[in-house]
Amino acid sequence: MECMEYKNKGLKQIAEKFNIDFHDIDDKFPTNLETICESLDICPEFAELRDGMSGYFDAHQKKIFVNKFHSAKRICFTIAHELGHYTLGHGSSPRDEYKNYNKEQLANEYAANNFAAELLMPNEAFTQFFQENIKTKSEQSTFIEISKYFCVSEQAAKVRAFNLGLIDSL
Ligand SMILES: [Zn+2]
Fold first, then answer.
1. Rounded to an integer, what distance in angstroms lies between the CA atom of residue 110 and that of residue 75?
2. Which residues contact residue 77 at a Cβ distance below 8 angstroms, ignoring those fewer than 6 apart?
3. Distance 80 CA to ligand 1 centre (A)
4. DSSP-assigned letters across all residues of the chain
5. Which end is more exposed in the chain, N or C (fewer Cβ atoms within 10 Å of the end residue's Cβ)?
6. Residue of 5, 4, 8, 3 lying closest to 27 (CA atoms)
7. Model confidence pLDDT, tens digit, residues 99-138
8. Tell me: the pLDDT tens digits for 85-104?
9. Fold classification of 9-120 (topology level)
10. What's the 59 CA to ligand 1 centre distance in angstroms?
């Protein structure tokens, strides 16, 4: 089991950091955040946050708070992002607006976003799904399909496609 590679590199990072076997949920979509959170003993909590805030991770309480007013897809991305802060050892994530972040906080935000993107839309599976769909569908329909399949917002899917060099502009 141990030598078996993970296709999802985000999942691999969590598995290795916390010594948990996640092969059961590897390469299955949408990524099973519930199983991950349960295995890590983290229970995401819905909170009334102002609109500019998606959520935060409280390292002391080992808890993820998410904005209860956001859509399910945004909430999933936030949970994945906060799992990134936890896995990457950032400690509690800042509860401020982006414009007030210092350089290190910004670097951590960037890393947590990349982590979330890979966890929910792993490079290989995403690229394959995109290329399969774009053959017969318009770009817009392709992103609608991606959004359903990976359970992410169309915006997050577009950013991912752009970062992977699959589309030229956002
Ligand atoms: Zn963050």
1. 18
2. 54, 116, 120, 152, 153, 156
3. 10
4. -TTPPPS-HHHHHHHHHHT---GGGTT-SS--HHHHHHHHT---EEE---TT--EEEETTTTEEEEETTS-HHHHHHHHHHHHHHHHTT--SPP-S-GGG--HHHHHHHHHHHHHHHHHHS-HHHHHHHHHHHHTTS-HHHHHHHHHHHHT--HHHHHHHHHHTTSSS--
5. N
6. 8
7. 788 899 999 999 999 999 999 999 999 999 999 999 999 9
8. 999 999 888 777 777 888 99
9. Arc Repressor Mutant, subunit A (1.10.10)
10. 12
Expressed in angstroms and rounded, the spacing between residue 86 Cα and the centre of ligand 1 is 10
CA separation, residue 132 to residues 126, 143, 158 (Å)? 10, 12, 16
Rounded distance from Cα 85 to ligand 1 centre (Å)? 7
CB 6 within 8 A of CB 15: yes
How do residues 36-46 score in pLDDT, each as one tens digit?
A: 999 999 989 99
For ligand 1, the distance from its centroid to the CA atom of residue 66, given in whole angstroms, is 11
Interior angle at CA 35, CA 131 and CA 44, nearest 5: 105
